[in-house]
Design goal:
This protein is α+β, with helices and mostly antiparallel strands and 178 residues long. It has two domains: 3-91; 99-173, Roll (Flavocytochrome B2, Chain A, domain 1). It has five helices and four strands; from the N terminus they run ααβαββααβ. The protein has helices at residues 3-40, 44-91, 103-107, 150-156, 162-165, and strands at 99-101, 118-121, 124-127, 169-173. Strands 1-4-3-2 form a four-stranded mixed beta sheet. β2 (118-121) and β3 form a beta hairpin. α1 runs antiparallel to α2 (44-91). The longest helix has 48 residues, at 44-91. It is rod-shaped and about 95 Å long.
Length: 178
């Protein structure tokens, strides 16, 4: 996901949070006012009237909060479902056959704009999306996902092939075109 979308979601979240806080404060002021009026009322009918206003405000607050939480849960569920659908579309391959990547196909998985980050090392394609060291598709020394990094891996991590064993294999590289 690109930075602009992340920023928009963050701003929307803070606006929603601010809106909820304002609603709660508004109801709190209203209920406190009715409660004070009830306390200082001398007439039983007035006391009952303010009690019913307090009850109505409480019921309205509960209904609004329920609507907010149901909506938030629905939105979150849809986001999660959409992410699952996108991931399953990206990874649907026959179980016993790995995807074969060309260099140009691999380049599409550069980790930018929410895309997965894949790198090729020694003919195998690994998913590095979940690694903090590959955030945004970039790694130390200016390495970028979406490339065959066999040479760079060998020079930097010589004898440390165990690093690769921790990564999901998503395919293999096609034989180089001549």
């Amino acid at each position: 996901m690109n930075q602009a979308k992340k920023h928009i979601r963050k701003v929307a979240y803070h606006l929603e949070t601010h809106e909820i806080k304002n609603k709660l404060n508004e109801y709190q002021r209203e209920i406190v006012q009715y409660s004070q009026m009830q306390t200082f009322s001398r007439n039983l009918y007035e006391k009952n009237y303010y009690q019913s206003l307090i009850q109505n405000s409480t019921d309205n607050l509960a209904a609004e909060l329920e609507e907010i939480f149901v909506t938030a849960a629905y939105v979150q569920e849809n986001r999660t479902e959409n992410i699952r659908e996108v991931q399953s579309e990206e990874t649907e391959e026959p179980e016993n056959q790995q995807r074969v990547f060309t260099l140009s196909e691999l380049a599409a998985f550069d980790g930018s704009q929410g895309k997965p980050a894949y790198v090729a090392v020694n003919g195998r394609v690994y998913d590095v999306s979940g690694k903090a060291a590959w955030a945004g598709g970039t790694h130390f020394a200016g390495l970028r996902a979406g490339n065959d990094l066999s040479g760079q891996f060998a020079s930097c991590h010589r004898g440390m092939e165990g690093i690769l064993e921790q990564l999901p294999v998503v395919g293999v590289m096609a034989a180089p075109e001549e």
